[in-house]
Specification:
By secondary structure, this protein is an alpha/beta fold. It has a single domain, classed as LigB-like (Protocatechuate 4,5-dioxygenase, Chain B, 3-Layer(aba) Sandwich), CATH 3.40.830. Helix content is 43%, strand content 22%. It is built from 12 helices and 13 strands. Strands 3, 4, 5, 8, 9, 10, 11, 12 and 13 form a 9-stranded mixed β-sheet that branches. It has a two-stranded antiparallel sheet with strand order 1-2. A hairpin with a 2-residue loop joins β1 and β2. α1 packs across α3 and α8 packs across α11.
C-alpha cells in the first residue's frame, strides 16, 4: 500500500473527503448545538477526557478541542479501540505523522519510543495509522491544536485488568501540566435511541464509581472499548484528577431525527 508521510493514500483520500464535509458543517453545527462551557471547565485544568471518533457529532469534537486549546497542551495521549484486532500485541502504538488538509500531526517520538523500548506496547504503524480511533481525530487536533504531538495507543478488547493497570501506570509517568489523556471511544451500538440511553445511564454510573470490573464486563451495546475507558480512569486516579463533568451526551438517532434507527451513542467528558 502506498504511503505519504506515514499515511496510506487511500486513507488520506477518505480523510480529506470527511474533513471537507466537516469544514462545511462544523461551524454551523457547533453554533447550533454547543452550550457555553461551564464555569468549571473554564477555570479548571483538564487532565483527561472522552470524545467520540464518529464524525457525525463533529460539533462535540470541535467543542472539546476548542476548550482544550485554551490550556495549550503540548502532548495528547490518545487511547482507543483496536477496531479490527490487528497486530501482534494487545497494545499498539506507532511513531507516525498523519497528513490532514490543515497540516500534519506528529507522534511524540520520545514517549512512543519509551513505550516500545519498555515492552509495554508494540510499534505497528500500519495498524495504528488507519484505525478510526486515531485517524478521525487528527484533522480536529491539527486545526485546534496545531503544535501538539500525540502518543497513539490502540487497545485490544481482550485486555485484562492487570495489563491495563500496567499500561496506565506507565502512561501516568508521562502526564504533566502540558499533557492531556484522551479516550477516543464511542458508546452504545446497534440499539434504538431509547435503548441506547438506558445503556448509557449504566455506563455513566460505572464511570462515576470507577467500577473497573463492571466496565470491563460491558459489550458493544454499551461501548466499543472498555479497556480504553478503564485505562483513562486508572490514569486519572493516579494523577488525582477524579472530578468529572459531562459536556455532551447524545446519539446518532437524536442527531438524525429518527429514534427508530440503530444508533451509536456519544459522550464528551472531561476530568480535572
Amino acid at each position: 500500500m502506498s504511503k505519504t508521510d506515514g499515511y496510506p493514500l487511500s486513507v488520506m483520500k477518505i480523510t480529506k473527503t470527511l474533513v471537507v464535509l466537516a469544514g462545511v458543517f462544523v461551524g454551523l453545527l457547533f453554533l447550533c448545538r454547543t452550550k457555553p462551557s461551564s464555569y468549571v471547565v473554564q477555570t479548571r485544568h483538564i487532565a483527561g477526557g472522552i470524545v467520540p471518533h464518529h464524525t457525525l457529532p463533529r460539533f462535540i469534537l470541535a467543542d472539546f478541542f476548542t476548550t482544550l486549546a485554551k490550556q495549550s497542551p503540548k502532548t495528547l495521549i490518545i487511547l482507543g479501540p483496536n477496531h479490527l484486532e490487528q497486530g501482534g500485541s494487545l497494545m499498539l502504538t506507532g511513531n507516525l505523522t498523519w497528513q490532514t488538509p490543515y497540516g500534519t500531526v506528529a507522534a511524540d517520538y520520545a514517549l512512543v519510543r519509551s513505550l516500545t523500548d519498555g515492552g509495554i506496547t508494540e510499534d505497528t504503524q500500519e495498524v495504528v495509522v488507519q484505525d478510526p480511533a486515531m485517524a478521525e481525530l487528527m484533522p480536529f487536533i491539527r486545526y485546534y491544536l496545531p503544535d501538539v504531538q500525540v502518543v497513539p495507543v490502540l487497545l485490544s478488547g481482550y485486555m485484562h485488568r492487570e495489563a491495563i493497570q500496567k499500561l496506565a501506570n506507565q502512561l501516568s509517568t508521562y502526564v504533566t501540566s502540558d499533557t492531556v489523556v484522551v479516550a477516543s471511544v464511542d458508546f452504545s451500538h446497534y440499539l434504538t435511541s431509547a435503548e441506547a440511553k438506558e445503556r448509557d445511564a449504566k455506563t455513566l454510573q460505572f464511570m462515576n464509581n470507577f467500577d473497573y470490573a463492571q466496565i470491563l464486563s460491558l459489550n458493544s451495546e454499551y461501548t466499543d472499548s472498555p479497556p480504553a475507558i478503564v485505562a483513562l480512569l486508572m490514569i486519572m486516579q493516579n494523577v488525582d484528577a477524579t472530578s468529572m463533568e459531562v459536556l455532551h451526551h447524545t446519539n446518532s438517532g437524536e442527531l438524525l431525527g429518527d429514534d427508530t434507527v440503530e444508533t451509536t451513542s456519544y459522550f464528551c467528558v472531561v476530568y480535572y
